[in-house]
Write a structure and sequence with these properties.
Layout (H helix, E strand, L loop, with lengths): L7 H6 L5 E3 L8 H9 L3 E5 L5 H14 L5 E4 L6 H11 L3 E4 L5 H9 L3 E6 L2 H10 L4 E4 L5 E2 L5 H11 L5 E4 L5 H10 L3 E4 L1 H4 L8 H8 L6 E4 L7 E4 L2 H8 L2 H19 L3 H15 L3 H6 L2 H10 L24 H20 L8
């Protein structure tokens, strides 16, 4: 009998299980990526917050740590995207992941080199648009997800996207943390699940212990969706800093962004000229206001303050609502085996006419 957990993305990505660890900035290091891959899922290295030279080294490091296929997450609107794409091709990376879809020419370049291209989307129309560009799969993230997110819950978005792009593998994201969620995603028509917060809260995650403890003590109502940080809605843990940013004046936010841009330039090696070019591209392609463009540097630097430096008082904590139902820090191997085992149990229970499967 065919294995119901061996879905289209298992063959597409070359992995054992239809479980994806998303490319979280400052969190999805080579070590976390490799641990996910060795556990049977698809690990995605966070490349958008690295300069090209750092990205080259990081990809090589993943190659040293695992022989399994892995992905790299990039910004589709980065001014140096062709250069970064060539690094993925050079290292034989399996999957190119994008928060914003790249141009048709970059998609074609990656696909011609044998890479699988997978953008994340938050609306049906976006799924239809990227499908027309020739992508290989999409990650559909509902509003429960952490970081930049849309306004449609996963339970509505996922079946809608699956129906809109028949034949294109869809991976559900936003609200997933266990085997019941994987079974539900398959029932909606998805080919697997992607998780960020759940992988952030593992023993393989590089996030400081004090920051992990902050996540673990929170409930399901302890996140907030705000546009105060960079002008685009994103879900973060509710903290004094997040609330202060919400109350801050536009002038204060712009001042913060200039400081963040200067710091991001130092960390990433991005010149002011390239940041200006990138901002102009963002404004043109995504219909952003000038204030949104000016604030764009806030997110990566304020995430770095918390996720790297452990400064909860100075940084924001991107988080899905699932943080409120997570109470442990398993290894990636323990987590994935647990999810797979529970999903099989749930699906078998339902196939045998059962119902009301509890935790």
């Amino acid at each position: 009998m065919a294995d119901v957990l061996h879905t289209a993305i298992c063959d597409l990505f070359g992995v054992r299980y239809p479980i994806v660890q998303t490319g979280m900035g400052w969190v999805s290091t080579p070590e976390l990526t490799a641990a996910t891959c060795d556990a049977g899922g698809l690990g995605i290295l966070a490349g958008a917050t690295l300069g090209p030279a750092e990205l080259d080294v990081a990809i090589a490091r993943v190659r040293e740590l695992t022989a399994m296929p892995f992905g790299v997450n990039l910004r589709g609107d980065a001014v140096d995207l062709p250069e970064r794409a060539r690094l993925l091709i050079k290292h034989g990376v399996r999957v190119a992941s994008f928060g914003l879809a790249p141009s048709a020419s970059v998609i074609a370049m990656l696909k011609d080199a044998g890479l699988v291209v997978v953008p994340s989307i938050g609306a049906r129309r976006h799924a239809e648009k990227v499908a027309a560009l020739g992508v290989d799969a999409v990650i559909a993230q509902g509003s429960e997800g952490g970081g930049h997110t849309g306004g449609v819950p996963t339970s509505i978005l996922l079946p809608q996207v699956c129906a809109a792009v028949p034949g294109l593998p869809v991976i559900g994201a936003g609200g997933f943390f266990d085997g019941r969620g994987l079974a539900a995603a398959l029932a909606y028509g998805a080919a697997g699940i992607a998780m960020g917060t759940r992988f952030l809260l593992t023993s393989d995650s590089p996030v400081p212990d004090g920051v992990k403890a902050e996540y673990l003590r929170r409930g399901v109502t302890d996140t907030v969706v705000t546009s105060a940080l960079d002008g685009v809605p994103q879900r973060v843990l509710r903290t004094p800093l997040a609330e202060a940013l919400d109350r801050a004046s536009r002038l204060s936010r712009v001042y913060l962004s200039v400081k963040s841009a200067r710091a991001f330039g130092r960390v990433s090696g991005t010149s002011w000229r390239d940041m200006v070019r990138e901002g102009l591209a963002m404004r043109r392609e995504h219909s952003l206001s000038w204030s949104q463009v000016l604030m764009a540097a806030n997110t990566p630097m304020m995430l770095r303050a918390s996720m790297v430096d452990g400064r909860i008082d100075l940084g924001t904590l991107a988080s899905g609502q699932v943080a409120g139902v997570i109470d442990d820090l398993p290894s990636c191997a323990e987590l994935i085996e647990r999810i797979v085992s529970e999903a099989r149990e749930v699906l078998e229970h339902l196939a045998n006419g059962g119902g009301g499967h509890g935790a």
